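Note to self: keep these together.
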Amino acid sequence: MLGIRPTTAEPARPVDDPLTALGAIDAVEGELERVLGGALDRAGEVDPVFARDVAGRVAALLRRGGKRLRTAFVWCGWRAAGGSGDATAVLRLGAALELVQACALIHDDVMDGSRLRRGAPAVHVDLARMHRAAGMSGPPEAFATAGAVLAGDLALAWADDLLTETALGSPHGARLHREWRAMRGEMVAGQYRDLHAQASGASGVDEALTIATLKSALYTIGRPLALGASLAGADERTLDALRTAGRCAGLAFQLRDDLLGAFGDPARTGKPVDDDLRTRKLTYLLAVALRLAEASGDEEAAAVLAPGAHPRPDETVARMRAALERTGARSVVESRIAELAAAGVRHFGSTGAGPAVRREFAVLVERASGIAPDTTR
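Structure:
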């Protein structure tokens, strides 16, 4: 049973300039724990059952880790725009982005029917287990779906609260809010386009890229960079360069995630490897494979990758994976990731950021994309 863990964290202290992008990944854990401690205390004051079953599960998901790369990209944007000194607001923005990520993961797992997240049962799966164990009435799945939707909503509310507090304490609060508002709209649009593509049996490469950009690339790297830069009062030229850099690097990240969704190791990724294929999710990888299959006359690959009934059985999933390899789509996507990662680093350099910040950005892009960017292209 989940309970409220008392918070013993000290109040936030100023973080001096020697903080690095990679250091921010570690430092945001303390900030996130302070935020969760306060949020859980407030939830307990509202209602103990809600605090245990809903707020407690949101906190548990966040405490199971994650790459925390968004915080590091906020730091990069802040430093690229001349930010220095106390980095507490940077960490608070990072914590807010982690809360948004929790909302997206919880809702995404419901929509995709995913059962595993960060090495543990997804929130809706855990709520269904609780329903059965307690002998509650009604269908466990309906209860769990509704409860997970509320859990995701709560994570987003906590994120909005934290962003608002940070914006009110900043001379650039209005700009922060504009970036945040745009990011939330893009996320919802991307999720819907993903659902729409799956329901309509879409297969186009352009549509796959639109979904990847809206659903992941912008809020993973593009908007974090712009949020950090806005916090430092960046001019429009710097913001435009960072948004372009983030779009390229963010797409590289998402295309890597597509490959991991088809070929990854669940023990390392913490999530099932076959979900995208089983549900025939429109990824750039699938769209490229289908286009290559049709162009080469590979009727077997085209047939197994085409729209159809889902969820697909293990045998069909295995044939889809083989088709992704045989058509050359996996190799094409690997090359595209390399191109996008390199472009992201080049655009970041055009901001005029110092050498140390550029190097850290390149390291982060390598972590996100799984490939060292070739900046000589």
